[in-house]
Amino acid sequence: MPTKPTIARIWRGRTRREVADRYEPYLRAEGIPPLEKTALGVQLFREDRDNESWFVTISYWADMEAMTAFTKGEPTKVHHLDRDPEFLIELPERIEIHRILVNEQGLR
């Protein structure tokens, strides 16, 4: 039986619109694969606004212990990618960690 996630770890970052199309493939190549190897699931979102683009990565974890093992004991610490300072308007200072209260995935 597959493990259901109980924890969602959420990272948010924003770029200027003119660099968003370069940041997205970088984030896909460097930020997402480590999560795909370890987390139960991962999603990447992008919202383009007038002058900036927001990126949100949500990874799903069986429990706090699994997430803490992935983050080497610091689940709320932001681990910036090497080129984040080049792309992001400011470096995010925190990660959100949420308990999943409802997990119904009837999306079609």
UniProtKB/TrEMBL annotation:
<protein>
    <recommendedName>
        <fullName>Antibiotic biosynthesis monooxygenase</fullName>
    </recommendedName>
</protein>
<dbReference type="InterPro" id="IPR011008">
    <property type="entry name" value="Dimeric_a/b-barrel"/>
</dbReference>
